[in-house]
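Final report, closing paragraph on structural work. Over the funding period we assembled a curated collection of sequence-structure pairs, and we close with a single example.
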Amino acid sequence: MTLDVIVAEVDEPTPRGIAAAIAMLIRTGELPPGTRLPTVRELGAALGVSPATVSHAWQALHGAGLVKARGRAGTVVLEPRTPPLPGHSRGLAARATGADPVAVRLDLAGGQPDPLLLPDIRPSLERVAPARAAVTSYLQPPLLPELDPVLRELWPYDPRALTVVDGAMDGVQRTLAAVSRFGDRVVVESPGFPLLLDLLAHMHLEAVPVALDERGMRPEALRLALDSRPAAVVLQPRAQNPTGASMDADRARELAEVLVSHPEARDVTVIEDDHSGAIATASAVSLGSHLPERTVRILGFSKALGPDLRIAALGAPQDLVDELVAHRVLGPGWTSRLIQSVVLDLLTHDEPRRQIARARHAYYVRQRELSTALTALGLPMRAADGLNVWMPVGDERRAQVNLAAHGIRVTLGSAFDVTSARDATAGPAGDHVRVSIGMLRSAVGEVAAALARAAA
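Its predicted structure, as stored:
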C-alpha cells in the first residue's frame, strides 16, 4: 500500500523530511509514474502531523516536477523529466538532476574538488594564448614535446611512451577497447567506480570483483579473480573512489608477483586510473615498476586543476600508445594543444604549484578532522586519501533520506556495488554511503554528528 510505503520511509515528519523520503522513493522506482499519493489528511494522520505540514511537502515535490495534482484523481507521480542513465551512474546523477525538492545546504555527494582550492588559470591563459593562437596545423604531434619531460617527472617508473587523452575515463575506455574483445572479463575493485562499471556493461565486458583493504586490492582475492582468465585488471592506485584506499610499494610488489605467477595472467593488461593525481597525499606507486611491458598508467589532472580541463596523461608500451594515437586520428584527432599548454604552464610555474600544494594539504586536514570527529562519536573511521570517505551505515537509503532532511547530500553505496552476487573475491556485504569532503569547509563537528546519527 502506498501509504504504508511512504510512512516506513519517513524518518523526520517535517516538510523537508517528507519530501526527501518521497523523492527517494520516486527516484528508486518504488513509487513509479502514475502512482496516486495519499491525501494530505491521510498522510498527516499516519505521521501524526498536521495536513498543512504534508501540504508544504507536496508543494516542494510539485515545484520539483516530481508530482502533479489532478483534481479528483488526486496527486500522482509524474514521468521523469531526465533521460535514463546506465544503472550505476544513476546513483551519482540523482544529485544533479535538479529534481530534488529538498534545499541542499551542503553537497557531500558530488565528488568534485573545492572551487576555492583550484589554481587560477587566468594568468596561464594570458601567457599561452598568444603562442597557441598562431598554431594552424593539423599535423603537429598529439603530445606537446615540452610537456613530455614534465609528465615523465610525475611517473613512478620510466614509461615506454606517453600521450594525452580527454580525461582519465577516456583513457580507460580507449585502453579497454584496444586490449579486450566482446564478452571478455575485466577484474575491478569492489566497491568500484560507477562510471567504470557502466562502461564495462556498455562494452559487453564482464566485471570480476576483487575486495579491497586500506592498501587497495587484496593479493589473495586478485589470485582468485585471475582464475576467470580476464583480459585486464583495472585499479585505482591511490585515493580509490569510493574508499580512499591507497596502494603502497609493498602491495604493488605483491600484486605484481600474483600477476607474474598466475598461469592465467600472462597476457593480462594492468590499467591504473590515478584520477586524483596531485591532490592525493600518498606517493605515486605503480605496478609498472614491476610490469612496465603490460601496465597502462593514466594520470588525471581535473581534481587538482579543475573539472573542465578534460585532460589526462597516459603512459604505456610503445605499440599500445601508437595504436591509441592512430585510433584517435579517426575521431577527435588529438587533445587540444591549448589545453595542453595551460596544463604545462600550471605544472611548471611557482604560484599554481603552491596552490595545488595548499589544496592537497586542505583535503588532508578535512579528512582527518572528519575521521577524528566521527571516531569520537563512536563511529571509528580511518582517515582516507583524496576526496571521499566510505562510511558504513545501518541502512544506506534511510541514512541518505535522514541526511537530506537536514540539507546534507551524500551518495548511496549501492551505486558502487560491482555485483549483488557476493562471492569469495568480493568484499563483505553491508550498507554504506559515500561522503565527499571537497565542499566540507567548516562545521565539521556538526556534520559529523549528523552523519553519526544517520549511520545509526
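The domain at 2-77 is CATH 1.10.10.10 (Arc Repressor Mutant, subunit A). The longest helix spans residues 350-376. We thank the funder for supporting this effort.
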